[in-house]
Specification:
Elements (H helix, E strand, L loop, with lengths): L5 E7 L8 H11 L5 E6 L2 E4 L3 H6 L7 E7 L3 H13 L6
Antiparallel strand pairs: 1-4, 2-3, 2-4
Helix pairs in contact: 1-3
């Protein structure tokens, strides 16, 4: 049996208002169809990236660094979806 696939990347929150409710909800929704485990860390706090409340607890303001770790067979595809959200600034100006 092969080891699970793990993908990790650090993102900078691009939104002026940070990762507030709407972008956090988009993040969670983007990952719903994936089976991989999702962890999001800011400094010493790590939360389940499929939990809206968890993401909100990070209080990730504009410019904060978030380390996203995905583990599972579909982790690479899930990371592509997350990258798209950050590149398009969660559809905010």
């Amino acid at each position: 049996m092969s080891a699970p696939i793990t993908v990790q990347k650090t993102f900078v929150v691009p939104n002026k208002l940070g990762l507030h409710a709407r972008p956090a909800a988009l993040f969670v929704q983007a990952l719903q169809r994936f089976r991989c485990k999702v962890l999001v860390a800011k400094a010493d706090t790590e939360v389940n990236g499929k939990s809206l409340m968890g993401l909100m607890m990070l209080a990730a303001e504009h410019g904060s660094q978030l380390k996203v770790t995905l583990e599972g067979a579909d982790a690479p595809q899930a990371m592509l979806e997350i990258e798209k959200l950050f590149v398009r600034k969660f559809d905010e100006a």
